[in-house]
Amino acid sequence: MTDSANGTRGSMVVDVAIIGAGPAGLTAAYLLTKAGKTVAIIEKDATYVGGISRTVEHEGYRFDIGGHRFFSKSQQVVDLWNEILPDDFIQRPRMSRIYYEGKFYSYPLRAFEALGNLGVLRSTACMVSYLWSKLFPIKDVKSFEDWTSNQFGKKLYSIFFKTYTEKVWGMPCNEMSADWAAQRIKGLSLWGAVVDGLKRSLGLNKRPNDGQAVKTLLESFRYPRLGPGMMWDAARDKVEATGSRVHMNHALKQLASDGQGGWRMTATGPDGDVVIQAAHAISSAPMRELAARLHPLPATTINASQLKYRDFLTVALMIRSDDLFPDNWIYIHDSKVSVGRVQNFRSWSPEMVPDPDVACVGLEYFCFEGDGLWSRSDDALVALATQEMEILGLLDPKDVIGGAVVRQEKAYPVYDETYAANVDAMRHELEERHPTLHLVGRNGMHRYNNQDHAMMTAMLTVENILAGERIYDTWCVNEDAEYHEAGDEGAERTLPAARAVTADQAAALASVRDVPERIAAADTTRQAA
What we know:
alpha/beta, FAD/NAD(P)-binding domain, protoporphyrinogen ix oxidase, domain 3, Polyamine Oxidase, Chain A, domain 2, 3 domains, seven-stranded mixed β-sheet, 18 helices, 20 strands, globular, disordered N terminus, disordered C terminus, FAD/NAD-bd_sf, FAD-dependent oxidoreductase, flavin adenine dinucleotide binding
């Protein structure tokens, strides 16, 4: 790595310039430096690496931006986690429940508990509604509401699907595509839930996961003892130990082609600009932001500008309590409150709180940047979270001893009716015009993926860079290596690659989640009538 004066605060020459120090960016940096390459990473956050997988610390309390279980079907990913963080994983029991009208329902469902909570009359109504849906199903299935009502009955749909889904995605269920419902809930059925619930209730489920392969039903998981940010702090430290650098509090100003296949990246920091020259560039930045800062501007900049995102904020409450509740997280299906999910960070790891007499919960609110929730002051959000926890019956406000707010912009890529064509257009233009520019990670590829998918896109990108050619297609998905959250990516064209991914690599590439697509306005007219 070399430095030289160039009319800016500093400039350097490295093998690879990387935008973003999240799981994808740091995975790439770690593997490249391990192979003897020099890298420079820019990260716009002033304090934390890890992106949405970071762990924030506030007065001795640690909390995640959403919960992050460390599970992957890819042994390569698991081995890399163990290599980066060999001594700090703990095994944690998974417990999560659904909250509805003042009562808690285990997830996965336990049949006797659910029937007892609903009561005889409501349970009977649910079964009648289910039978009605089987005898008289909606024939012209268009929406999430149609599909789910056919599968579970209108009553169960309204209890266990409608409110939470609309909170998360910010659109009515009758405007979400039925295809998304079929993918998201694939492998689950009312009968299967009842049978599994009966086995659990009767103590017949002896194995840790009862042999199930559905990811959302795992009953235990590994977790870094100080939160997921511990993993990415360790990765950063290992990268910097080789002499490469992570530039914190630096935002991308421009990524310019040097006309010879390489790149000149300019990043703006608190003390001025830094210029990084590199043969390759890796971007985990949102495609919309990257396109606007590329030089020359891509012809598909207008496509990228149409990509949309769902945003997210966490309100962490510090509470004087020795045992708040045992859940890792709770899904809030109650329409009386705005919160969508509540994390209990001490249940993720006892070391997430400074002493055993306190707890820390994270109330998760799904929103759009600039809307009423996003724009509220931190004090107002802490007050709202405290009030809603009291409404839910989970705490006494006088036990709250502190609070903090973390806003996460562009947490979830939105899959609207044009997103696939827009992503496809930009991806292929960049691949054809700039083969040394590599897109990785959730926002870098506009995919609602899991952490292991983001890492695998980086791992395969590193293989391509080291080989000097595109031997792997990082966009491919092997549908046989299926997660419960995995969706159909058939709308995207697959460019030829020299080498097929292995089954292990495909398992991580299949670790994507489904996002609802809004159905055309004409399709909602029938349902509104």
